[in-house]
Amino acid sequence: PGPTPEPLCTIGRIVNGSGYDALDAAATERHELTCCSDEAPVGNETWGVCSAGQVWAERNGALFQQAKEALGYGAIGAFTGVGDLNAALGTFRWRQDGCVDRVGWAMAGRICHAIVVNPDTDARARLCTATELLSPARCGISLGCSHWDEYIWSSSPGKNAAESCVIPVPLAPPTTTAAPTTTAAPTMTAAPAVLPTAAPTSVVDSTPVARTTVSTSTTSTASSTASPAPPALTCPTFSPA
After folding, report:
1. Strands 22-26 and 126-127
2. Sequential DSSP letters for 39-93
3. What is the largest CA-CA distance in the chain?
4. Residue 133 is inside which H or E element, if any?
5. What is the pLDDT of residues 129-154, one digit of tens each?
6. Which of 3-17, 23-37, 81-95, 130-144 has the lowest mean pLDDT?
7. 70-75 LR contacts (CB < 8 Å, sep 24+)
8. Are strands 79-81 and 11-16 parallel, antiparallel or unpaired?
9. Could you give the 3-state DSSP secondary structure of residue 116?
């Protein structure tokens, strides 16, 4: 048999948004989200630089909105509901501006990983480490979403987590089952153009039509014999006296 896989970490480290306090939290708890990147996001100026200029961090904005759409939580508007990794924890909220509230540890990691910071290299964001969130780096400070006094998930296991446990942060966004291919409607072949044709030429039949005359008389048939010629006139002869 192969080696026994390391168990998933059930305890993560959460850090106060101010960067001065860190606690252990069960992975099933719900906390806030900040994402970090090891390179400057392309074309985006809102990410703050921290950790001596080596890390970029953000909580909301255009890239979070794009990730929201990519993971199937809507292109516009806010989402409030259960996530595919958050179902057992209750609902979380993904605001229209990109802020994420009250999310579980694994789902927090998935959201960060769905943020593409460089489309050319497919470089992605990640959860910040506890060291990056704590002072003096304080990568989670002044990033908005009203999370400055909330606890934020880090990618670090809790101090009381099982030794060598595997952090439950997915390496890739969930595979989306492709929608069934819709067969294109058959192309309608245009009916051949019907050219107007000249009206047929009427041919006049010059053959006389035989007509049958039916007599209305029931007693006799008209005679076809010609009438006799009138008698010739004879001039009288006179004898001289």
Report:
1. unpaired
2. SPPTT---PEEETTTTEEEESSSHHHHHHHHHTTS-SSS-EEE--TTTGGG--EE
3. 188
4. helix 130-133
5. 999 999 999 898 877 788 878 899 99
6. 81-95
7. 70/114, 70/173, 71/110, 71/111, 71/114, 71/173, 71/174, 72/176
8. unpaired
9. strand
